[in-house]
Amino acid sequence: MPLLPDLSQACLPPTQPSAVRASNPGATLIDAFLSASAAGIIELLSPNAPGWGGTLLVGLLHSIEIALGATCLGLLIGTCGAYGKLYGGPVVRDLLVVYTTIVRAVPELVLILLLYYAGTDLINQALTAMGYQRVDISGLAAGIAVLGFVQGAYSTEVIRGAILAIPQGQIEAARAYGMSPGLLLRRITLPAMLPFAIPGLANLWLIATKDTALLAVVGFYELALATRQAAGVTKAYFTFFFAAGVLYLLLSLFSNLLIGRVEAWSRRGMPSLKEAR
Amino acid sequence: MKTVLKTFAAALLLGVAAMGVAKADPVKIGVAAEPYPPFTSPDASGKWVGWEIEFIDAVCAEEKLDCVITPVAWDGIIPALTTKKIDLIVSSMSITNERKKTIDFSDKYYNTPTAIIGPKDQKFGATPDDLKGKVIGVQVSTVHAVYAKKHFTGAAEIKEYQTQDEANNDLAAGRLDAVQADSIALGEFLKSDQGKACCDLKGMVAPDDEVLGPGVGAGVRKEDTELKDKINAGIKAIRANGKYDEISKKYFDFDIYGGGGAQSN
Amino acid sequence: MANEAAIINVVARTSLWLQPHRIVLILIALGLVLSAAFFMRWDWLPQYYEMGLIGIWRSLWILAVTCILGFLLAVPLGLAQATGSFWFAAPAKVFCTVIRGTPLLIQLWLLYYGLGSLFPQYPWIRGSWMWPYLRQAWPYGVLALTLSFAGYEGEVMRGAFAGVPKGQLEAARAFGMSRWKAFRRIWLPQAIYRALPTLTGETVLQLKSTPLVATISVIDIFAVSSKVRQDTYLTYEPLLLLALIYMTITGILVFAFGRIEARIPNKIG
Question: Global pTM?
Answer without folding.
Answer: 0.86
